[in-house]
Amino acid sequence: MIKTAQVIGKLAAAGVENVVNNYCRFSDPAAVSFDLFVDTTSEHSPPEDMVQRGIAYHYVPSSAHPLARVIALVRLFRSGGYQVVHAHLNTLNVLTLFAAWLAGVPVRVSHNHSTADRGEGFRAFIKLLLRPTATWFATAYMACGEKAARWLFGNRRVDAGRVTILPNAIDVCKFRYDPLQREQIRQELGLQGKQVIGHIGRFMPQKNHGFLLKCFAQCHASHPQTHLLLAGGGEGIRSAREQAERLGVSDAVCFAGVRNDPWRLYSVMDVFMLPSLYEGVPVVCVEAQANGLPCLVSDHVSMEAAVGGDVTFLPLDPSAWIQALDAVLAHADGEKRANAYASVTQSGFDIRDTARRLLKYYTAMLESVRNKPCRRIRP
Fold this sequence. Notes:
Elements: E1 2-9, H1 15-26, E2 32-39, H2 48-52, E3 56-60, H3 66-80, E4 84-87, H4 93-102, E5 107-112, H5 122-130, E6 140-143, H6 146-153, H7 155-159, E7 163-165, H8 179-189, E8 195-200, H9 209-222, E9 226-231, H10 237-247, E10 253-257, H11 262-268, E11 271-274, H12 283-290, E12 295-298, E13 311-314, H13 318-330, H14 341-346, H15 351-370
């Protein structure tokens, strides 16, 4: 069995965490094991099904405390006897990989799931500053898409075939459109008879909730039957609630919070909005397409996010989004959504296929170092 350490940062019921959880759920437990390393600042508890599967969770100091983090990771990596350390922290991978190098772990994967945007200000500056370090101490490179790969690892490595692209895959069948769940959850949330514009994501600057709310307020003024469904947690939720109040649409905005059944929410929606400032290949967009939702997506998001569904990329100009919303709401048709999941499966985003690919990847990486002595690699 291949023993792996998956380092994902804090538990926040967010995209990267869900991607890793999917690999844990759909990989052969006799062939590969997954231990998850998370920050002590985590906002949520591990999912119940992961605990029932016997997945081990190790809590370590966050990257804000680099020395304490490295010391804790080195100790755990050594005592755990890991063959693979897989870091999912993008530009912050260097601390994890340094600890894995010190601990003598033979396969050290630097994985990128995102990019950056100048709209983040100082946060974007720090990402750019740290970007070169993401390759330090790594023996292998991986990304969710080509744009993310080129952003973090550079064109030279990508063009040389040194970066493996592994899609942010999902359990496609789970997200299939379900008219019974649509009516059940609409009744639960008080959305019967409404046209529902939806979004799922953490309340953080990257997701651009302020822009989303402004667009919805304009749309609602001419389409009073519309409601906005926002699901997710995060530090920005209070600001979003206050903005909804200021815009006079708080009665038409449903803050659903963090749910343990997010896949059911897509069937409730009539259109999905993702006005992010940047993304890699966002999991929520793949999920929405598997549900057959028309998706309005920021053109700051990689076009790799269109995986067989109805996706329209738009500039971050409110007038363009209002016009697109008008067109989509006028032609909403649930009957066409039932078989949309098949196109997403054919695009290579089914977790069953990618879980097998990941196991083959680990096996190949270990084989390449099996007969080589462990040697120190300078950054």
